[in-house]
Design goal:
The complex is a heterodimer of chains A (355) and B (425). Chain A is an alpha+beta fold. Chain A is built from eleven helices and eleven strands. Chain B has a six-stranded mixed β-sheet, sandwiched between helices. A six-stranded antiparallel barrel of chain B has the order 7-8-14-11-10-15. The chains are: A alpha+beta (355), B alpha+beta (425). At the A-B interface, helix 5, helix 9 and helix 10 of A face helix 4 and strand 7 of B. Bound molecules: guanosine-5'-triphosphate (GTP) and magnesium ion.
Chain lengths: 355, 425
C-alpha cells in the first residue's frame, strides 16, 4: 500500500540530504593525491554506462605514456577500481553520478586507494573525466548555491543599508549616511528656507541610496533569473516615499515585493526586515528554519515542554522513538565511534569531534 | 547678568499620543520661551491642515513629516528656566519605530517627566520607556498624568492611573513614595504653573514646582573626559562639528582629543553650546565642537571622544551582568541583538552564558546555564560585531550600562563588569 508522504516531511528530508551532501563534499575537498592521479568522473543520467567504460579502458591504455612509475600504477589501479564499481550499474541513477577515485595521501609516505560514488541532489548536465592532484568538485558545489536571492534594503532619513537574502543567510552589502539636517541644526535659518534645503537633501539622499543599492543588486550574476524580489524596510514615512519615487533602477523597482516596518536602518535592520516580512517570504529557507527554532525555544521554556537539547538527552529520546523533529546545526561535525578490544571484549561508544 | 543657575537635562517620555510634545510646548509657553502669537500662528496653520489641537506640539514637532502625521519622529532640544534651574528639555518620540531615537534622548538626561494619558493609563511604550530610563541612568522622575480635562478631572481616574504607574515604576527600582504624580492637562494648562481649581482634591506640587524639587545631579569632573558623539555636521566655513553631551570629565579649548573606535586624533578648536562659544564643557553640557585634524567621514555617531592620553576603551569583548526583561522565547549563546550603549547601536553576540543569578539576592544559582528566559539575571560574555566603546560600570557608569533590543522591543538591560580591551595603536 502506497502511503502519502506529507509535504513537510519531504522538506525535512531535503534538508537532511542537503546536510549530508554538504558534509560529503567537505570530506572530499580535504583529500589530496601526490601527483596528478586523482580521478573525477561526472556521468549525466542519459549517458550510456558502456560508453563510459569504453573510454575508461582507452584511458587505461594511454597510461602507459605516464613517465613516473608510481603515478602510472596509481592511475591504472584507480581506473580498474572504477571499472569494477561501474559493473553494478546498468544505467546511471536519476540525477547521474559523480565518481571520485585515487590514491589519497594519508600521512607519512603512505597512500590509500579510495573510491567514492556520489549521487547528487540535482542533475549532472555534462560528462567529464579529469585527472588532477585534488578532486574536481565545482559542479557539485554549484548545486549548493541558492537558486534565488532576495534584495533587502532598509532606509530612514539618517541612514540606509542593503544586502541579500540567500536561502538561510542574510548577506549585508553596504550602507550609507545622509546629510539631511535633523531638528538640532535648525539654528537661525528661516523655517521655509530650512524646509526647502531639507527636502533637497532628502531627495539627494534617496538618489544616492537608489543608485548604489540598484548597482549592488544588478551586479548579482544571472540577476534576471535569480533576483526574486526586493523587500524594503524602515520606519514610516521614509520607505514609502523612497519606494514610490524614481530612485531605484527600473528593473529593481519593478521587483519590489513589499514594504515592511523596521525600526533600525543599519545592518541589524536587515534582520528586522526579514523578520517582519515573514508572510511575504513563506517557504523561503530562512523562514522555515526560524519557525522550527521558535517552536523549539517555546517548548524549551515551558515547564513540561516537548523540547530536548544536548546530545545525551536527544539521543535518549531518539532511542525511545520520541522525536518528531530533529534540529542539527549545519556546522555539526561529530562522529560516533565504537571502540572494541579484540582480546577482552571490552567495548566503549563515544562521540568525537571530527576536524 | 545673574549668577548662572545649575543646569539639568530633562527628557520627556511616554507612550505615543499621550501628550509629551504638548507638555513641552506648554512648559515653554508658561516659562515665556514661546510667545502667544507664535502659538496663534501654529493654531491657524494646524487647523487648516485638520490638526486643530496640535499648536503646542508644533513648538517641538517642527519637521514637515511630523506635522503631517501629528507624531514626533526625531528628538528635539529646547532651553527653559525655572527659579532654580536652567533646563535643556528633550522631547522624545513615543512611536515604537522610533524608540531608538528616544534612547538617544534619554541617554543624555539627568531626569525625566513620564507623561501618561489619564484616559488610557500606562501602555506598551510607557512601560518600555520607564524601563529604559532607569537602565540609561535616570534616577529622578516625575509622573505627569495628562489629559485630565478629557476625564472631567476625575480623582478616581487619577488614582487609577497613579496606582498602575506606581507599580510600574517600582518594578524597575524607582521609589513611588518619593515620586510626584501630578494630574495635568497640557492642553488646557492645568497644574503646570499654578494649582488648578479643577483639581481641588490634589494637594501636591504643580509641574514647574516639582521640577525645582529635583536634586542637582553630580558633576563627575574628576573622571577622564567621555563625550559620546550623537551627530556629526559639516558646516561650511567651520568644518566638521561633532555634537554630543559630556558624560564625564571636562573638555577644554586647545585640548588634544582622540575619537574611538574611529581611532583618530585632533585638537579642540572651539566649543559651542546653544549657539554661544564657551571655553570649556562640563558634564551634562550638550555641545558642538570643532576639531582640527579630523575630516568629515572620520567620526560618526556612536564614537566617543576622550583625552589622547586616556582614550575611550574599545572592547574586544566584555563581561556584563544582565536582566532579561521580556523575551518570547529564550536567549542562548550565539544570540545577536542590538545593544544600545551611550549613543551607539551595535549588534553584539552572546558568546557565553557564565552564571545564572538569583534576581533578588544576586547569589549564583547555576553555572553555565544553557539558556536564559524572561525574569532571569545572569553574567554573560558578549562580543560586539563591530568595534564599540564601552567601559566598566564601576569606573564610568555613564558608559557602562546598556539596553538590549530585538524584535521591536527592549528585551534586557545590563551593566559592564569587565572589558577585554582591544589594542588600538
Ligand atoms: N484633551 C487633551 N488632549 C491632549 C492633551 N495633551 C495632548 N493632547 C492631544 O493629544 C494628541 C497628541 O499630543 P502630542 O503632544 O503630539 O503627543 P506625543 O506624546 O508628543 O506623541 P508622540 O510624540 O507621537 O509620541 C494631540 O491631539 C494633543 O492635542 C491634554 O491635556 N488634553
Ligand atoms: Mg511628540
Amino acid at each position: 500500500m502506497a502511503e502519502e508522504i506529507p509535504q513537510a516531511q519531504i522538506e525535512k528530508d531535503e534538508a537532511r540530504k542537503r546536510y549530508e551532501f554538504k558534509k560529503a563534499l567537505e570530506k572530499l575537498e580535504e583529500k589530496e593525491g601526490s601527483g596528478t592521479e586523482l580521478i573525477s568522473l561526472y556521468i549525466p543520467p542519459d549517458k550510456q554506462i558502456y560508453d563510459v567504460t569504453a573510454q575508461l579502458r582507452d584511458e587505461y591504455g594511454q597510461c602507459a605514456n605516464i613517465k613516473s612509475k608510481q603515478t602510472r600504477t596509481n592511475v591504472q589501479s584507480a581506473i580498474s577500481s572504477i571499472l569494477a564499481r561501474l559493473k553494478y550499474y546498468k544505467t546511471a541513477p536519476e540525477n547521474g553520478m559523480a565518481v571520485f577515485c585515487g590514491a589519497i595521501n594519508v600521512g607519512g609516505d603512505k597512500t590509500d586507494l579510495e573510491s567514492i560514488i556520489v549521487e547528487p541532489p540535482e542533475t549532472i548536465r555534462t560528462y567529464s573525466y579529469r585527472c588532477s592532484s585534488s578532486f574536481e568538485l565545482e559542479p557539485l558545489k554549484a548545486m549548493l548555491d541558492d537558486k534565488f536571492v532576495y534584495g533587502l534594503l532598509v532606509i530612514d532619513r539618517r541612514e540606509a543599508y542593503w544586502g541579500f537574502l540567500r536561502g538561510t543567510h542574510i548577506e549585508p552589502i553596504n550602507g550609507t549616511n545622509s546629510t539631511v539636517p535633523g531638528k538640532q541644526r535648525k539654528g537661525g535659518q528661516s523655517s521655509i528656507r530650512f524646509e526647502r534645503l531639507r527636502l533637497i537633501a532628502i531627495h539627494e539622499f534617496y538618489k544616492k541610496v537608489g543608485e548604489r543599492a540598484s548597482e549592488a543588486f544588478l551586479a548579482e550574476p544571472n540577476f534576471f533569473e535569480k533576483f526574486k524580489g526586493l523587500l524594503i524596510g524602515g520606519p514610516m514615512p521614509t520607505k514609502e516615499e523612497f519606494a514610490e519615487g524614481d530612485f531605484l533602477h527600473h528593473e529593481v523597482k519593478k521587483r519590489i515585493i513589499g514594504l515592511f516596518d523596521a525600526s533600525y536602518t543599519n545592518e541589524f535592520g536587515l534582520r528586522e526586515l526579514v523578520d517582519n516580512a515573514q508572510d511575504a517570504l513563506r517557504g523561503v529557507g530562512i523562514m522555515d528554519e526560524k519557525k522550527e527554532m521558535t517552536r523549539f525555544f517555546k517548548e524549551l521554556i515551558k515547564e513540561n515542554g516537548c523540547a530536548a537539547y544536548g546530545e545525551e538527552s536527544v539521543r535518549a529520546n531518539l532511542e525511545a522513538g520520541a522525536v518528531d523533529t530533529l534540529l542539527l546545526s549545519e556546522k555539526l561535525r561529530k562522529a560516533r565511534l565504537t571502540i572494541a578490544c579484540g582480546n577482552c571484549g571490552y567495548q566503549e561508544v563515544k562521540t568525537m569531534q571530527v576536524e | 547678568m545673574a549668577a548662572e543657575k545649575p543646569h539639568m537635562n530633562l527628557a520627556v517620555i511616554g507612550h505615543i499620543d499621550h501628550g509629551k510634545s504638548t507638555t513641552v510646548g506648554r512648559i515653554l509657553f508658561e516659562t515665556g520661551v514661546v510667545q502667544q502669537h507664535i502659538l496663534d500662528a501654529y493654531k491657524k496653520e494646524a487647523e487648516s491642515k485638520g490638526k486643530g489641537t496640535f499648536e503646542f506640539a508644533w513648538v517641538m514637532d517642527s519637521l514637515k513629516e511630523e506635522r503631517e502625521r501629528g507624531i514626533t519622529i526625531d528628538i528635539a532640544h529646547k532651553k527653559f528656566e525655572t527659579p532654580k534651574y536652567s533646563f535643556t528639555v528633550v522631547d522624545c518620540p513615543g512611536h515604537r519605530d522610533f524608540v531608538k531615537n528616544m534612547i538617544t534622548g534619554a541617554s543624555q538626561a539627568d531626569a525625566a517627566i513620564i507623561v501618561v494619558s489619564g484616559t488610557e493609563g500606562p501602555m506598551e511604550q510607557t512601560k518600555e520607556h520607564v524601563f529604559l530610563s532607569k537602565t540609561l541612568g535616570i534616577n529622578q522622575i516625575i509622573v505627569a498624568i495628562n489629559k485630565m480635562d478629557a476625564v472631567q478631572y476625575s480623582e478616581e481616574k487619577y488614582n487609577e492611573a497613579k496606582d498602575k504607574m506606581s507599580k510600574l515604576i517600582a518594578s524597575v527600582g524607582f521609589k513611588p513614595a518619593e515620586t510626584p504624580f501630578i494630574p495635568i492637562s497640557a492642553f488646557a494648562g492645568d497644574n503646570i504653573k499654578t494649582p488648578s481649581p479643577n483639581t481641588p482634591w490634589y494637594k501636591g506640587p504643580v509641574l514647574l514646582a516639582a521640577l525645582d524639587d529635583f536634586k542637582q545631579p553630580d558633576m563627575p569632573t574628576d573622571k577622564p573626559l567621555r563625550l559620546p558623539i550623537q551627530d556629526v555636521y559639516t558646516i561650511s566655513g567651520i568644518g566638521t562639528v561633532p555634537v554630543g553631551r559630556v558624560e564625564t570629565g571636562v573638555m577644554k579649548k586647545g585640548m588634544k582629543v582622540s575619537f574611538m573606535p574611529a581611532n583618530v586624533e585632533g585638537e579642540v578648536k572651539s566649543i559651542e553650546m546653544h549657539h554661544e562659544e564657551i571655553p570649556q564643557a562640563l558634564p551634562g553640557d550638550n555641545v558642538g565642537f570643532n576639531v582640527r585634524g579630523i575630516a568629515k567621514n572620520d567620526v560618526r555617531r556612536g564614537d566617543v571622544c576622550g583625552p589622547v592620553e586616556n582614550p575611550p576603551t574599545v572592547a574586544e569583548e566584555f563581561q556584563a551582568q544582565i536582566v532579561v526583561l521580556q523575551h518570547p522565547s529564550v536567549l542562548s549563546v550565539g544570540y545577536t541583538p542590538v545593544f544600545h550603549c551611550h549613543t551607539s547601536q551595535t549588534a553584539c553576540m552572546f558568546i557565553s552564558l557564565d552564571k545564572k543569578l538569583d534576581p533578588r539576592s544576586g547569589q549564583v544559582k547555576e553555572e553555565n546555564p544553557a539558556f536564559l528566559k524572561a525574569g532571569d539575571a545572569a553574567i554573560c560574555t558578549i562580543q560586539p560585531t563591530r568595534p564599540l566603546v564601552i567601559e566598566k560600570a564601576k569606573e564610568l557608569p555613564q558608559l557602562g550600562r546598556f539596553a538590549v533590543r530585538d524584535m521591536g522591543m527592549t528585551v534586557a538591560a545590563g551593566l559592564v563588569l569587565n572589558v577585554k580591551a582591544k589594542q588600538m595603536r
